[in-house]
Design goal:
By secondary structure, the protein is an all-alpha fold. It has 2 helices and no strands. It has one domain (8-90). Helix content is 81%, strand content 0%.
Amino acid sequence: MFDIGFSEIALIAVVALLVLGPERLPKVARTAGALMRRARNSWQDVRSEIERELAAEDLKRTINETRQAADVRTDVKAAAADIEGGVRAAASTPPPAAAPSDERH
């Protein structure tokens, strides 16, 4: 989370020892550790909640795409309309006239 090395932690410990004194330093260190642990746990909870929401949204999108792919009603309706249009066009045009034969008797 933070890029703090051992030397920085040692410097902070020495300054805290000088400022707080040896009596209050352990209590402050425990309190600081508890606050850091609580903050880390809260961050993990938020992160896992966001991941769950993203997974749920992805699942909903996949379900909708699958449902649309499996829904053949629109394809069937379009095919029926094409066939009906072809039948109506064929019914409205007169049949071709028979060509006179070239037979001479």
